[in-house]
């Protein structure tokens, strides 16, 4: 069993093992690895985990926020649903993260509408929270076509 101690002088965490008298350093991996390697590790995270990791400490936040590559793959998953919006944002020179934030909710709402999650809604009061957001005319046209086919 390990008992941890956090040093107030630096960000190292030390673990004392009850079975053996050794002291194990659990140093923040971003302090010892090259930034490129830390980015590679962070790139394995899903979107929710990446956002949580960015809240862990200033160093993790700086790496995550500073790497447009980390947000690109997540944004490309939204691209399949919101192609016009993502393309427009990228043409305007916005970063992948800003583009993702601007289009993520739209992508989720559009996916739910196209899957038929709201096909049996009779009135606006029956709509669940977060089921509406501004969508362009073409998107509403796609949703209407999908509903008519059902």
Automatic annotation (TrEMBL):
Transmembrane region(s): none
Keyword terms of this UniProt record: Repeat, WD repeat
Organism superkingdom: Eukaryota
CDD domains hit by this protein: F-box_FBXO48
Pfam entry (one): F-box-like
Gene3D superfamilies assigned to the protein according to its UniProt record, in alphabetical order: 1.20.1280.50
Domain called F-box: residue spans: 27-74
PANTHER family documented for this protein: F-BOX/WD REPEAT-CONTAINING PROTEIN 2, F-BOX_WD REPEAT-CONTAINING PROTEIN 2
Protein name from the UniProt record: F-box domain-containing protein
